[in-house]
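[Primary structure, fold]
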Amino acid sequence: MSFLRLDNYTVPGFGLQAALSLKFKDEDASGDSSSTAKASKGTKGKRLECKVCIRYRDEADLRSLTSMAEAKQGGDGRVYTITNRTANAAGMRQGRFTGDFRADEQEDTRCWLVSFSLAEHISAPERAEAREAPRAVATQQNPGETIAPAAEPTVQDKQNLTWAERMLKKASDAIGGFDDAGGTTP
């Protein structure tokens, strides 16, 4: 029997079905050729698609589940800790309601078929990107434009140099650097 808990709230009803989806964003990298090459654009967060039946006589359960879906936290949808076999097996630990929340009447079984989605909050790829050092941004300079000389590195900057950068700096200092007028210093 499958169940879904959001923090300390157990989703009510019966016949819960949970399906996990994971999108891989890619782009055609073949140009005009017949190649099937793709360029990866990253992995998007996981999404847990849920369906559950709630009996008409359990109207308060539908009301409480709807309130959970509508809950806000800092202006955004509230983030819940998810306990579900499918979500947890795929590494999805936290999520928030996203997309459509539907409650469709099922007259033959006298219940609502409730469907909703939970989007992963701070996915594993997102955490990995946050750990990576920010990449330096290359700037394009127009020919003939005068560029102001770079400011002297601070003590903090000097301490953040890699081993290779420190060796190159020592070599540059030994040979002689550039003065503010663009010439070399003796």
Summary: The chain is about 25% helix and 35% strand. Residues 72 and 130 are 25 Å apart (CA to CA). The longest strand covers residues 38-55.
